[in-house]
Write a structure and sequence with these properties.
With 465 residues, the protein is α/β, with parallel strands linked by helices. The chain folds into 2 domains: 37-55 and 348-463, Aspartate Aminotransferase, domain 1 (Alpha-Beta Complex); 70-346, 3-Layer(aba) Sandwich (Aspartate Aminotransferase, domain 2). 35% of the residues lie in helices and 16% in strands. The strands form 3 sheets. Strands 4-10-9-8-7-5-6 form a 7-stranded mixed sheet, sandwiched between helices. It has a 4-stranded mixed sheet with strand order 1-2-3-13. It has a 4-stranded antiparallel sheet with strand order 11-12-15-14. Strand 7 (222-227), helix 9 (244-254) and strand 8 (258-262) form a beta-alpha-beta unit. Helix 12 packs parallel to helix 14. The longest helix is centred in the C-terminal third of the chain and has 22 residues, at 443-464. Its cofactor is pyridoxal 5'-phosphate. Residues 1-22 are annotated as: Disordered.
Length: 465
């Protein structure tokens, strides 16, 4: 049986009064029904059985301003009273224009144009097609290859899954994937840095590997290098060593290869700056965003494009050869614009940075006595805890045990929802949990989250260590 997908965490075991359904909705599991959420407010999910659970993972790093915000709800209603839908082949709307202008005001880092679609997978596909079109417009039709990284995740459609390295998701689709893709080693120091190797040496080795891969494929055939500035759910909040992404930028520039940074999970303030790449001394050609863009109030994702890429189209076909029926959907744009205005007005990105320091301190102090905690890593309000059977050898738990899933279930029953991951190390073995609470989370809630997580971990250590 295939390992469990890290982007689809196992549903916490049902309570004594589970919510079972014989209806027609296709849930992610046919064997276990999800819990029914009747309402949500702030950092809390209110279940149909009367229990309240702290949403310590923001769904999947989505709910950045918390649940139930009346200001956003009013913005959606107001837009519905104006225009709910137009087709972008012929029309635009003030709210879509305002959202793009609000995010890219002043053309930050040379990012000039924004495209709004319905999901992270969609904008990754759009970025791949745009990157290909960029080279096509420049009379380089032989560029058909993408390079990404192992233990990465970029989406669940066929092309976006192809550049991903989430092995569990690929099992049923072997042979269906886009073939012109290869993967290099991730900047995952806890597992991939060699004994005696410094951070600088580790970075240099990874960059040599990247350049060697370009040369192996033939740099004239490579479209782009695709990377998450901070690797998200698949490996658990992997922060690259200093100089890695800026070094990758230089290698790409050397061969005319585009750099696509996937900030679907780690962007929109999640790591303490609006763009995650801001902290890495690098400027990408294309950036993708989703989750925090709409904060969960609407299905929306964004692709932000550098002037360099836009100019290639201006000087060529003068059109983006791509489009979706629900592109720049007015209702979704209204929700996202309201979320982004709140984010900026209330200084929530800076609050995320500051509360992230609180969360890190709590995690390191609360989990200090947990023998199964091998690594604690992250930035902003985006943190992961990797579990090991032996902290000295870094031996993993047997995948059949499902250690992270069991920790998640105990934590849930104690009132805190965390995000589990399996296959952390290489797609087959390794366990971690991810924390990504709303930027509005309180210090008291963070203390409860960390204390509860500690209790959940210790309960499983007592059984399995």
């Amino acid at each position: 049986m295939a390992p469990h997908c890290t982007d689809t965490p196992p549903v916490p075991e049902a309570d004594s009064t589970p919510t079972q359904h014989d209806g027609h909705l296709f849930h992610r599991s046919l064997a276990q029904a999800p819990h029914m959420v009747e309402s949500a407010s702030g950092s809390n999910l209110h279940l149909s059985n009367g229990r309240t659970v702290i949403d310590a993972c923001g769904g999947a790093a989505v709910a950045i301003i918390g649940h139930g915000n009346q200001e956003v709800q009013n913005a959606i209603i107001k837009q519905a009273q104006k225009v709910s839908y137009v087709h972008t082949q012929s029309y635009t709307t003030p709210v879509a224009e305002e959202l793009a202008d609000f995010i890219l005001d002043g053309t930050p880092y040379g990012l000039e144009k924004a495209l709004f679609l319905g999901s992270g997978s969609e904008v990754i596909e759009a970025a791949m097609k745009l990157a290909r079109q960029y080279h096509f417009e420049r009379n380089e039709p032989d560029r058909i290859h993408f390079v990404s990284r192992k233990q990465s995740y970029h989406g669940n459609t066929m092309a976006s899954m192809s550049i991903s390295s989430n092995l569990a998701r690929k099992v049923p689709y072997k042979g269906f994937e886009y073939q012109h893709v290869s993967h290099v080693t991730p900047p995952y120091a806890y597992r991939y840095k060699l004994d005696g190797e410094s951070d600088v040496q580790f970075t240099e080795r990874l960059l040599r590997e990247l350049e060697d891969e370009f040369l192996r494929v033939g740099p004239e055939k490579v479209i782009a290098f695709v990377a998450e500035p901070i690797i998200g759910a698949t490996a658990g909040c992997i922060v690259p060593p200093t100089g890695y992404l800026s070094g990758a930028r230089k290698v790409c520039d050397k061969y005319g290869i585009l750099l696509i940074l996937d900030e679907i999970m780690c962007g929109t303030g999640r790591t303490g700056t609006f763009f995650a790449f801001e902290q890495e001394n690098v400027v990408p050609d294309i950036v993708t965003a989703a989750k925090g863009l709409g904060g969960g109030y609407a299905a929306i994702a964004g692709m932000y494009v550098h002037t360099k890429v836009v100019n290639a189209l201006r000087q060529g076909s003068q059109a983006l050869n791509h489009g979706h029926t629900y592109q720049a959907h007015p209702m979704s744009c209204a929700a996202a614009l309201a979320v982004q205005k709140i984010l900026r007005r209330d200084g929530l990105v800076e609050r995320c940075r500051d509360m992230g320091l609180v969360l890190e301190k709590l995690l390191r102090s609360e989990l200090a006595e947990c023998k199964s905690v091998g690594d604690i890593r992250g930035r902003g309000l985006f943190w992961a805890v990797e579990f090991v059977k032996d902290s000295i050898t870094k031996e993993t738990f047997d995948p059949s045990l499902g250690f992270s899933g069991k920790v998640t279930q105990v934590s849930f029953h104690k009132g805190v929802a965390v995000y589990p991951g399996v296959g952390t190390v290489d797609g087959l073995k390794g366990d971690h949990i991810l924390l990504a609470p709303p930027y509005t989370v309180t210090e008291e809630e963070l203390a409860t989250i960390c204390q509860t997580l500690k209790e959940a971990i210790l309960s499983q250590e007592a059984l399995h260590l």
